[in-house]
Specification:
The protein is an all-alpha fold. The protein is 71% helix and 0% strand.
Length: 273
Amino acid sequence: MWLRLSRNRMAIVGLVIIALFICTALLAPYLAPYNPLKQNLLLISGGPSAKHWLGCDQVGRDIFSRIIYGTAVTFKIALTSVLMGLFLGTAIGALGGYYGGKVDAGVVFLADILLAFPGLLLAIAIVAAVGTGLGAVIIATGFSTIPQFIRVTRSVVMGEKEHNYVLAAQAIGENHRSIIVRYILPNCIAPIVVLLTLRVAAIILIASGLSFLGLGVQPPTPEWGAMLAEGRGYLQKAPHIAMFPGLAIMIVVLAFNLLGDGLRDALDPRMKI
């Protein structure tokens, strides 16, 4: 799989970009040249310079430092949310696909209800119910990604449970939980991993959208969507305030999409030929 992935140059580019942003998030206190919350009224809306590479925002805060700290906030939301969707969605989808019947009908009904709402609209509804803030954004984006994992896991498990190795495990007396966890789910890894990378990109967009609308992470916390919202009123006077956070969102989302496409091709058995 790695050999096939390494031949995909765009996927490797995406992987390198993601690795760089993860390192930036982990080392934010050491990489940021300034305090992301410190204001300097003498530098209000100042453009890029030797001291402030990306300029300063509408209250004189260093944009480069805020983007670095915003990387940590964005990745915390994305990874926590996608893991939440992964565990809940995979568990529910596996139960529905394995047991079938009324259990499967209930799982499909739940997934259809959640899929009836666009991801951002569902997240807005959840935030409206639980309130704003970092925790609310994680819950909202996590729930918005559950139905995708339910659908993918259910369809794969339904195909895997008919294979001979599952019948053999049943014949030697393995219980249902052991069959699902030890035998079926390890053979469902490929499509779930691909979905995982693609959903991270979607979650970043949803979380940034919530913050842009004022329903997500609240100022003065440095978060890319909130920074983009703060700079929209200065597009003519100081476009760099909104441009650089927007570029950060675009680059990270593009990187995860490139990696997801590469993993999809690398894990597809038909691509081995």
